[in-house]
Design goal:
Number of helices: 10
Structural class: alpha/beta
CATH class: Alpha Beta
Largest sheet: 8 strands, parallel
Order of helices and strands: EHEHEHHEHEHHEHEHHE
Helix content: 25-40%
Strand content: 5-15%
Shape: globular
CATH topology: TIM Barrel
Radius of gyration: 18 Å
CATH superfamily: Glycoside hydrolase/deacetylase
Oligomer: single chain
Length: 278
């Protein structure tokens, strides 16, 4: 068995058709092995159809408590006047941690997302969270309980180790601070009770995983264990409201389908796996 096993994981499956198409391209022609689907995403049916046509593509659920509309109705706690959840995890956390979003409503929404994915015929291997909301106190316990209730064995624990190159980019120090906060919360949470990988990378370069950044990350991976690499492939969509994120979806797709990247994996003897293998 190779000493190092790597899950290359695409987030935001179901957010838009352009993103979905980039994800399956990075799977069909590149190194992506897993993706997590957004059950309340605008392109959820499109993503389901693409996943069904690709049995080798491992699918998990991207639990979502921000930006999109919830599946559940009847409570105003999760949404604003336009029926959208908080725009960012920081806003969600501020409302949730001050008691303005009851945990019972969080549980109801997350369970509805799991049930919708399962009702669509998907076999979910793992759970993770949009903007990593799954690491929040209380929410993490709900995620563990729902995973066990629905027979989902694994969860993402997004604790990325700080590396020297991250300290050299002054413009990304805010991102580094977010990385430390998310990672610390994850390591202290009940998520540790579920199956997880030995190491996680990709938060620091989230949305900006160019070929250069990807090659550097792969070159710095440990020599042993199981690692998850988070990525965000997609295709350009000039009219998308999600362009405000500043993500470079098409650049990530190009990086993930690069022959040079594939050659580096082969040279290092890295085995590509999915969450099914954890």
């Amino acid at each position: 068995m190779p000493a190092l096993r790597l899950i290359v994981h695409a987030d935001d499956f179901g957010l838009s058709e352009a993103i979905d198409d980039g994800i399956v391209e990075a799977h069909d022609r590149g190194i992506v092995t897993s993706a997590s689907i957004m059950a309340n995403g605008p392109a959820f049916p499109h993503a389901v159809a693409l996943a069904r046509a690709r049995p080798a593509l491992d699918v998990g659920l991207h639990l979502t408590l921000t930006e999109l509309e919830p599946l559940t109705r009847g409570s105003r706690a999760l949404v604003d006047s336009a029926n959208h959840m908080p725009r960012h995890a920081v806003q969600f956390a501020a409302r949730y941690l001050t008691g303005r979003i009851p945990l019972v409503e969080v549980r109801r929404e997350l369970e509805a997302q799991i049930r919708r994915a399962l009702d669509a015929g998907l076999c979910l291997s793992h759970l993770d969270g949009h903007q990593h909301v799954q690491v929040l106190p209380g929410v993490a316990r709900v995620v563990v309980e729902l995973a066990r209730a629905y027979g989902i064995r694994a969860v993402r624990c997004p604790a990325e180790r700080v590396r020297l190159f991250m300290l050299r980019d002054a413009a990304r120090l805010c991102r580094l601070a977010e990385q430390l906060a998310v990672g610390t919360a994850a390591l202290l949470s009940p998520l540790r009770e579920l199956k997880r990988v030995d190491a996680f990378v990709g938060f620091f370069h989230g949305g900006r995983l160019t070929e250069e950044n990807l090659m550097a990350l792969l070159g710095a991976l440990p020599s042993r264990g199981t690692v998850e690499l988070m990525c965000h492939p997609g295709r350009d969509d000039p009219g998308s409201a999600f362009n405000a994120w500043g993500y470079r979806w098409s650049a990530e797709t190009a990086a993930l389908t690069s022959p040079s990247v594939r050659e580096l994996l082969e040279r290092r003897g890295i085995e590509l796996i999915s969450y099914r293998d954890v």
